[in-house]
Records
---
Amino acid sequence: GYSSRLGGSGFDAVSAGGPTLFPLHKPQDTTADLEKKVHSLLEESATASAQGKYQLALDRAKEAAKREYQLGKQQDTSGSTDQIGMDLRFSVFFNLAHQYHLCGFTSEALATFEQIVKNRQYTLSGRLRVNMGNIYFEQKRYGQAVKMYRMALDQIPQSYKYMRVGIMRNIGISHLRLRQFQDAIESFEAIMREEPDLSTAFNLVLCYYATGNKSQMKHGFSILLGMRDTGTSRADGGGDGETSEEGEPQESFVQGDALRETMAERKRTTTHFLTQAAKLMAPIVERDPVSGFDYVTELLKSEGYPSIANELEIAKAMYFLKKRNYVQAVETLRAFEKRDQALAARAATNLSFYYFVDNDFRNAEKYASLAVKADHYNAKALINKGNCLFLRKEYEKAKELYQEAINVEADFVEAQYNLGLLSCERGDLKAGLECFQKLQSVVPNSTDVLYHISSIYDKIGNLRMATKWMELLVARVPSDPVALAYLGDLYSRDGDETQALHYNLESYRYYPVNIDVISWLGAYWVKLEYFEKAIPFFER
């Protein structure tokens, strides 16, 4: 019978094969599991993004947003409002917007950011307007970008100094892109009062240059010269190949020395800004270009930047060359002959080029030889000397120099082009064709290269390929009468009179004084016995 004694033969549900009852899950347990899953998906998304796997990061971010929504619904159902994680929700949607941006879905990114910033429960959401401004800036919607940056700036306390300066810099650059130079100047000047830096000082010089105010340009350049970033001193001047007090090259730091790498990078940045600003303002800062270059050069030397001053002297010569003031250009370049060897080599390279263009081949070769002697790895100097030897028909020596230039700079198109011309001049059409085809893969839109490829195929008797390449040329320069006439001639020799007529007429339309084209058109109509059409061409 029934016994209530412990150890008695009471009913055992397991032994009897009945259902086993387990304790029910509490809502809090489900919420905790979902929260862990959301955190896990967030971490996976961030990791994938850091590894450059942006699509995977976006997929994980979307899944995290979906799970977070389920988490919110679960919390509402269970009434556990004390567990609502606003920080987690903010992180989920911020990450989703960021991944949209990285994947190029800017509309979705902006919509998600807008959803966050409109939620007043996120106390720091106003900062995300900077992200929205960055997206508008990438879209070149600079007016909207300025609006977002200003709204973000209004919500950031004065104590966040560096953040405010960064936003003000973005506002200044946006105004610069909008060509609102006065507004940009106000932003950059405010930054220079708060937290001056090199890039802002350089942008300020750009704005002064754009407004054409010479006194402000001088003032801005003086400010730029006064900036001293870490790792840059007055004495080194930022020149390449200079040495330290110990006599070791300044750029040859120990591999893996992050501090020296950072210092070297800052030094290069300083040199770049100073060089570009000097080149920009020198021709216009004084009453004439010569005075302007002299003013800036002396200022650089007095501030301890001799290498940049020398760079500006080279730029001065190039300026005169572009303005066809050859006398002053040559005088400026010749002044480097007794200076530093590296500078003398650069000046000699430019002098060689000038004399070559001026048909003074003796001086061209003289200065090319000086440049090569000073630096045998100067590809431009090798080209110049090779050109001089080419004209003297010393083809083998010229070929060696062109090949050396290509070895120094593999993508030096001038050397490859000249090597192709040299091969054709020697009658080695196969080698010339190889050179120009290699060059065409590097500069596919070069009309000169297309012309030479077509010409070589014509010379070896392959009219079909010659016509193909000439058609590519005409497609790029459809109004070139020489190319049109050449294509017409190719079609004529290939027996296609209809196409030949078309291209010869096009050539005649653009250049009606080409005797060969006029003669061909007259003969064509005579052959067809349309004498009345032939007469006007023969009359010309």
---
Amino acid sequence: MASLTDDGSRVIESQVVIHRTKAVPSSLSAAELDDQFDIPSCIESIAASGATRVALQFPDELLEHATAVSSRLTAALQEKLNHQLEFFILADTTFDSCVVDEVAALHANAQLIIHFGYTMLANAPTLPSYHVLGKRVVDTAGCVKELQAYVEEVLTKDTTAKEHCTGVILLFDTDTYHSMPTVWKEWCGNDEASSSSNLPRTHQNVTIATIPQSVRHPTENNSPVSPVTSANVHHIHGMEVQLPDGDELRSHAVFLVGDIDSPIVVQVLLAVQLTAQRTGKQPTQLLKVWNGKTDCNTDAEEVKDTIERHNTWVQRRLQRRWFLVEKIKECEVIGIVAASCGVMGQAEMIQRLRRTIKKAGKKAHVLMVGKPNVPKLANFDEIDAFVLVASVSGTLLDDKEFPKPILTPLETILGLMPFLEVETEDGNTILSLSETSKTPTFFDMDFRSIMTHPLLLPTVESTSQAETAEVSLTSTKKVFHIGKKEEAPLNACTTVAVTGSSAVVQYENPTVERFKQRTFQGLDPEKHQADKGFPTTIVEGLSGVASRYNNDLDTMESGKGEQDGNTATD
């Protein structure tokens, strides 16, 4: 309760922890500044856009370089452009700093956003954006050597396993992606196909993950990889992975070039969970993290212990995920929380979730509360569970401190699946996620991966079967699967009060029922004893302005008239 009544000093006195291991050095020369922040590519992007107001978004660890970058861009563009140019520094974003803060940019009437640092590779919904990914030093020759050793290790046949890994996905973190063209060229160097400017996306059991073409970044014009042409495309942390026809994402291991403490490590561990179940290997064996340096002082055992710690954290969260999937079946009122403003497709995802929840016979409310925390969501006691529509890094996994369960869109579909059905073109009913061709893994936190799922399309309907019930696995409560319900006519509703041509009727609504069950019924209990909180007569409300309502004028005039009458009588 203290978090609801404190004076705000706790927030003012809090300290921001900056991970210096991943940050750029404080002192940079002019050449190092141009290289680290890709100043030449930023100049070209601004000049090509024709923007006169540009927003520069920096995370906390790069904010100290904001003035130098802005001054450098201003000096360079004054000589190149004929019009005046204004820069705005964006910091302390409402949500995660890895997401483009379009709302803050619109407040400054910006026409272009340049995002620096770690990013979720998501474009803003309306404003054009450009992502400067950063540059970590990568030993390309050592990377190829480590990749070759890992491929031989992970593809070794295990006679005791039911299935085997069919390949390895080569994944680069955002600050190491600049080395992807060189590494992939060296990996394909001994093949005749390397002479082409468009290298294959899969070579020697290794599939490259690339940034989508819709996301603008400095390396977009130097990519040697052929464009995506197949429907067998998956996404890991915002990057596209086009697998050969017939291959599945859950039969691949991952070789990650990046930092061991990067947020992408947890997301990759989530992605390889099903691979571990199918192959009998541990998730830590299906993920190799290499920081880009052959002579790094980081011990291999230390890296392994860190991955083990991340995996233990993931396993605990996943155990609760199954509980939440069962819990949402009991929910009558579901809140959809919009926890990001800079991810394209969020508004469409919210609309599809609202439609799906309604088809399942439940009530949906859309909330915008900024960055979710316990005091904010505790205000909505009538809501049974929350669905968080946010970026990958903003999706909450540990929700034990929250008063109500918090789920991802994918987990919501899993929980509501018994209430829904959808038919494919051949007339077959989809009963599980595994029956769709573009199905992501259950542990995918990216809502963009399920945008085209059949259960989110307008063709989905409620189950046509008669009312059935099953026992919940979490509370032994009966959960009813209700068939299609026709809209109740007006004359079938309970009439509470009638006056003239107006009427007040009572509809069955889960939210209203929650209010009726509350112990506190208002300050005047006599008004609620007659009909359980519903008025027996319709009275006219106040009208006019708050300083002097219309009925106050009538009262004053009537009082004045009485005084005049009394005076005349006397």
---
Amino acid sequence: MTASFHKGEVALQNLVLGEEVAQMHRGEIKHYIRKYMPDQHKAFYEDAPWLAVGTVDSDGQPWGHVLQERDGRRLKAQGGEGFILPREMFMTHDVALDNLQNKGAKLGLLGLEMHTRRRNRVNGSLQSKLDDENQLLFKVDQSFGNCPKYIQSRRMKRVPPQTTTRTTTAGISEAAAAHLRKADTFFIASCNPGSGEAGSDVGVDLSHRGGTPGFIDVNGDIMKFPDYAGNRFFQTLGNIAVNPKVGILAIDYETCTVYQLSGEATLNMNDTSMHGSERSVSIKITNTTTTEGGLLFTYHSLERSPFNPSGGTEGASLRLVSVKDETHDVKTFTLRAAEKVRIDPGQYGSFIVEQPRHPKLIRAWTVSSTHANEEGTQEFDITVKNKHGGAVSPWMHYEFSEGDVGSGSMRLAGVEGTFTLPKTIPENASFVFAAAGSGITPVMSILRVLSRHPSKPTATLFYSVKTLRDVIFHKQLSALPNVNLHISLTAVSEAVAHPFRSGRLTASHIASLLPPSSHTAYICGPSTFAKALENAFTPDKVGRVITESFDY
């Protein structure tokens, strides 16, 4: 196993990215997978009315399950290192509890807030059973967030409990096949059996797959789906590479029916025949378990994901209005959309970029301008650092032409993000921000709002960059009222004269400058940066911590 990845995942990363790029990729994202749940994730899971989970039975067969809130009983975090699942959350007669009998039993859990497209995952090991076996205590093995790609936006509506019927058929049932052919979402459970040695990398994972209705093909007992561009972790495909057994969880939100399918998967690494796919996966379905009336909720008001490879990827066309140099390698691009777009300060846009050298690439950049108009705006800014050897940023810095898009095209697929201010800001509220490098872009958008807000909130900003010439928005930051600015230069010696602090931004430095108060804290930067600063934001100084990482 390499860092957080086992041999199957590493093999897929090497195959797709090339060994050199894959090694760099693992180095960039290894800290993004934690062995604990940050505060933001703990609150997310504890607020979730339902969860999708994966388990493995005694024969090594993965299963997908739905856990649902009943009588107010939900997941409860135990610090950041563990969590409790009450027995009531499991569906009656589901095999999940049978699969979680012994200490060390593995569980892969996915939380999905569909109306915001937030998605987080945590994988754990059963530690003990509490309260006469009515509660299951798990240790966190891995905790990480996922991007909002391919998630359809839905609003949940609760329904009264129904009489449930549960049936199992060989192969794929006609009802399940019919549902999958029109579905836009399903979940897949997979597992890595490890080497069999003590401490080996055994684990179970459950992931989300989404697309436009019809993206799943069912022919006889063979289910086939496309593998779209993602975060390049290859956790599901890496598991399949070493163990073909998988479990499928498909939910019919209209009829409250839950389908649990089991089978064996085949990776089709060179198959790009399915629209928008980089490869495909075929699954020979061996059994289908159907639970009618199993859900306690329905979803409605569907909005397709802007990332879906058909029926929504066109996006809003963009025209370049102007370019401004911020630093030696950072530029701000003012773009104009064909239609008005609603953007809350701190949110990011997902952009589709097409060039002769690269037919289609998707990138996410924070909107660095500030827009408070409820009706939306047509013009907005993104601030982009030129990444040497990158596929998009060098093109933007050197080939992007004002008035048109030069040798390529750019479209706005959608605007997302929860790194935003609360709807109501009380009188004399206090905010603290920690940003590293390009992490200043969403913070800048938020600080402009706070600096002119009638409730006169105060803000403290800790900003870490390598050198003085790397400070983005220097003049704008210095001119903001009610903002206490602290800049740290990580690559400049104290022997060199400059107006800022030398050295890395540390938790002790932040803590020494923060008076006890009920601050709301925002951290934006690499996950290693956020992790290093967590000790600064203790409960006596911070009421809530909101983080955003650009590791993936």
